[in-house]
Write a structure and sequence with these properties.
Length: 581
């Protein structure tokens, strides 16, 4: 009885030592979580309120596994560098009250598949791993997940786990079953550590983005689906974050921005604005990383009535680095409708739009954009820069993620107006991305291979009609043998006989590209963007054309202002401008 009583007192004492103001975040992933950018002088000074729990033994600096240290890089292992956790922690302690500490428990191995964190698969995975990877596994006794749990339990003796940071996916690039595998690991962590999902959000960072040439940017469309699988998951955007020459890893400036963005998401889940505490004692060099110096001016724009336009917002910070601030900028106007961060042109008029950004220090900068909404705005196209033509149709692919999936067994009609810099073929492959039936590359194997169409340098409408063998949620336009730029317009997918459109922004009058993407940069594809179509991009009308004469896209007169109403629906040139009937 006495022994039991003493044990009870001992356990109560241990629990009493847990500090509710010590916020612990678990971190796991592969090389970008591990850290691949060499630390600079500004990175080597850290607030002592930011701690790291050594998950392996270090010799330089000397650290013992299972003990807390000031989070001076490297955090993960001895030979790693600045990664995601470094500026996550710096940002958190700058924003939280002075009495709150932040600690990270970080287990990561470069190059690993997500199954490296699944204990039932890791043994077989290690057997076939490269020798350098085996060395990293060995530091975690060949079971990174088990080590993460072991260290997390040590952390729970002093602090409270407030969230989980994940950066992984380059090795699982584009694999649609990745979110479910992440959920398996997340659920196991909750169970093994006695945590509640509502109290422990998961923050998943995007891979290097397509806008800077990310080799694995295709996986960002998979990461975007994670909140559908894990209710308390949050995606950390990588747009504009600079990368190293390998197009896989971030630069040190990229890691700083990503770390800040992880922290901004974490602060919001705590009900806090992403702002530094007014009384925070800044190191001057570190403060420059957060202080916005200027916003880039934005050129005057013209928008076609009925269309929408997004604004790209960039800023330069006091330390000289630049960031894409689009996602967090505030856009307002007393002249135009602003919805979902975009200007909606509902009538012909002129006016202004104000763009404001408040940095982490609380300083707000603004810029003004002059806008004209007109009935005669240019037609807009989706322009895919294919680079050099490939050898096979699948070498270059453009994806349209449907807003609404098809119904198996129903007949559908897909239409698209397409032209290219060179002649070649476009093949349509509807695919059921949500299927659990995967091919050897981890992609959905539930695909239909439809007929190819001969594409020319002149815009023409192409049609595919088919019975859906699966509940397809994605259209793949295979354009591998087309070189240069390939232009798409008026892409439509409807059930036969229905007016319900399944694509999103298929006329490209909005700047929203969230449902449109291409293969990663390894394919040689260079970019995907929405652009105004110049009249010079189509055949010009004959000389001496009369005012009001109507021409088709091949420059052939097909009517005049008097009989334009009798023309069938389509694209025409009137008075030198594109019109849609």
């Amino acid at each position: 009885m006495m022994t039991c009583a003493l044990l009870a007192v001992s356990l109560l004492g241990a629990r009493a030592e847990v500090d509710p103001n010590f916020y612990v975040y678990l971190c796991f992933g592969q090389s970008n979580m591990e850290g691949q950018a060499k630390a600079e002088t500004v990175d080597m000074t850290v607030d002592p309120r930011f701690k790291t729990l050594a998950c392996v033994d270090f010799t330089n600096p000397v650290r013992k596994k299972g003990q807390w240290y000031d989070a001076v890089p490297p955090i993960v292992r001895q030979w790693t560098n600045v990664g995601m956790a470094d500026y996550f922690g710096r940002t958190m302690v700058a924003a939280l009250p002075a009495g709150v500490k932040v600690g990270v428990v970080d287990v990561a191995i470069g190059g690993v598949d997500i199954k490296a964190f699944m204990s039932e698969q890791v043994a077989d995975y290690v057997k076939t791993a490269e020798s350098w990877m085996k060395s990293a596994f060995a530091e975690y006794d060949n079971d990174p997940y088990k080590r993460l749990v072991e260290m997390a339990k040590i952390a729970q003796q002093q602090g409270v786990i407030k969230g989980i940071l994940l950066h992984q996916g380059e090795t699982n690039n584009g694999q649609a079953d990745w979110p479910q595998k992440v959920k398996t690991i997340y659920d196991r962590l909750l169970s093994d550590l006695g945590l509640n999902a509502a109290d422990v959000p998961l923050f998943a960072g995007e891979t290097v983005n397509a806008d800077v040439g990310g080799t694995c940017s295709l996986h960002n469309s998979i990461i975007a689906r994670l909140p559908q699988t894990i209710a308390n998951a949050h995606v950390v955007r990588s747009n504009g974050c600079p990368c190293a020459s390998d197009n896989i890893h971030f630069t040190v400036a990229g890691y700083r921005t990503m770390g800040k963005r992880y922290a901004y998401e974490a602060l919001r889940t705590l009900g806090l604005e992403p702002r530094a505490a007014a009384d925070y004692a800044w190191n001057s060099a570190l403060k420059d990383v957060y202080a916005l110096k200027s916003l880039d001016p934005i050129d005057d724009i013209t928008v076609k009535v009925g269309g929408a336009r997004a604004f790209k917002v960039w800023g330069t910070f006091a330390d000289g680095h630049r960031e894409d601030l689009t996602a967090e900028a505030a856009i307002s106007s007393s002249d135009f409708v602003i919805a979902d961060g975009m200007l909606k042109a509902t009538e012909a008029k002129k006016g202004t739009v104000t763009i404001a950004y408040t940095d982490f220090l609380g300083t707000t900068l603004t810029t003004t954009v002059n806008v004209e909404a007109t009935d005669q705005g240019a037609n807009r196209l989706l322009v895919v820069d294919n680079g050099t033509a490939g050898s096979n149709a699948w070498d270059k692919e453009m994806f349209c993620d449907l807003a609404t999936p098809m119904t198996k067994g129903k007949t559908y009609v897909v239409k698209a107006t397409i032209k290219a810099d060179t002649k070649g073929n476009c093949t349509l492959w509807p695919r059921w991305d949500a299927s659990t039936n995967r091919d050897q590359w981890g992609n959905s194997a539930d695909v239909q291979y439809l007929a190819s169409q001969a594409i020319t340098t002149v815009a023409q409408e192409y049609t595919w009609e088919f019975r859906a063998d699966f509940p397809h949620d994605c259209l793949i336009f295979a354009i591998g043998d087309l070189g240069g730029k390939v232009c798409f317009d008026d892409v439509s997918c409807r059930e036969k006989g229905s007016d319900v459109e399944l694509t999103s922004n298929g006329n490209f009058e909005s700047d929203d590209l969230s449902h449109w993407r291409i293969l990663d940069s390894w394919s040689g594809m260079k970019s995907i963007k929405i652009e105004d179509e110049a009249v010079t991009a189509v055949a010009a009308p004959k000389a001496g054309a009369a005012e009001g004469d109507v021409y088709n896209l091949q420059g052939v007169k097909v009517g005049s202002g008097r009989n334009a109403g009798a023309l069938r629906g389509g694209l025409y040139i009137v008075n030198g401008r594109k019109m849609v009937k």
